[in-house]
Amino acid sequence: MKQSHNLKVNIPSKSAYSYDIIIGEDLLARANELVKAHTKAQKFFIVTNETVANLYKSRLNIENSFWLILKDGEEYKNFETLKHIIDSCVKNRLERQDCIIAFGGGVIGDMAGFAAASYMRGVDFIQIPTTLLADVDSSVGGKVAINHEHGKNLIGAFYQPKAVIIDTNVLKTLDLRQLKTGLAEVLKYAFIEKTCGYEKDFGLYDFLKQNRQKIFALDSAIVSELIYMCCTLKACVVNKDETEKGLRAILNLGHTFAHAIENLTNYTVYTHGEAVAAGMKMAFKLSLTKGLIDENYHNTAVSLIDEYDLIPPMQDFDKEKFYDEMFLDKKAQNGKVRFVLPNGLFNVEITSDVNKEEVFEVL
């Protein structure tokens, strides 16, 4: 029997707005039905990239749709590509009641979503993610953006989709590096699980310890359950804090370091997940230095990251430049860098009480 899950994201600040996340096998074959169950749109603009189009364009058949196929890569997540998307909306006479569909990974989802938020002050938007990273992270929660030369995702909006459709079979065409980049965000949820405040304890850390081989083998039932747990935890956080006024920042464990790594290497050396995994190890080391966690938990957490083999050899960074990059992080406030730091078993806190010398020690 095929494993499937359906859960809701509820946004109280938007007059109890909610949308479905549908997780299951062979959902591309049902995309026409699922899309039309979640929007009244009559015309559909599908934005994807060359890699996804080559693999799956023939399998995503949505009536009355047109396509835009973009180049693949984080380096294209910029103003020029955003203009290209909006120019295509105008050229194809997309109207306010129509719908943009993001069919791809996080880069496509972020850009297509930002275009949807901007074009005619907002058109319907549906996410069909094609990577594990997008499944568990960027497709859920309504963060849409493009990069700026001085920082990742500096220009964007909070714009919720009408639905997120996750076909787990699509993951079978990911290469190992892209699978691992998604697993970095998955491990993040294990380390923040208790702070998310969900009513049920999934025991995600133990699940990851016990099922590593099945996860890498993309066992359908295990992967479906894993995505469901991660999406549930993220939805729990987003339901309480849609626009990252407080709690939602916990989803950025490791990201203050990661965004500096990505920006200093122009997004061309390490994947987002590789940078996040390295950033989480730095965050755990910083927490240990500050006495927020004991050595046992530090070693336990780092060993899980190492077991999943998520980090390639990292280059040496100029510490002053690295520290300066951190101030461009979106969590920075009042001239101080805010960090998400582990402070107990699967708990984290948000703090600005970190000095320059402490950061230098963990780089």
Based on the model shown, name its key terms.
single chain; 363 residues; alpha/beta; Rossmann fold; Dehydroquinate synthase-like, alpha domain; 2 domains; seven-stranded mixed beta sheet; two-stranded antiparallel ribbon; 11 strands; 43% helix
What can you see in these coordinates?
With 363 residues, the protein is an alpha/beta fold. It has 2 domains: 4-170, Rossmann fold; 183-362, Dehydroquinate synthase-like, alpha domain (Up-down Bundle). It is built from 14 helices and 11 strands. Strands 1-2-9-6-5-3-4 form a 7-stranded mixed sheet. The protein has a two-stranded antiparallel ribbon with strand order 7-8. Helix 4 (106-118) links the parallel strand 5 (99-104) and strand 6 (124-129). Helix 5 packs parallel to helix 9 and helix 11 (272-289) crosses helix 14. It is globular, with a radius of gyration of 20 Å.
Compressed to H and E, one letter per element, the order equals EEHEHEHEHEHEEEHHHHHHHHEEH
Return residue spans where pLDDT drops below 50 for at least 5 consecutive residues: none
CATH T-level fold name of the largest domain: Dehydroquinate synthase-like, alpha domain
- The end-to-end distance, rounded to whole angstroms, is 47 Å
CATH superfamily of the largest domain, called what? Dehydroquinate synthase-like - alpha domain
What is the CA-based Rg, rounded? Answer: 20 Å
- Give the integer mean of the pLDDT values: 94
**So what's the overall shape?**
globular
Kindly name the structural category: alpha/beta
Strand order of the largest sheet: 1-2-9-6-5-3-4
CATH architecture of the largest domain: Up-down Bundle
Largest sheet: 7 strands, mixed
Give the oligomeric state.
single chain
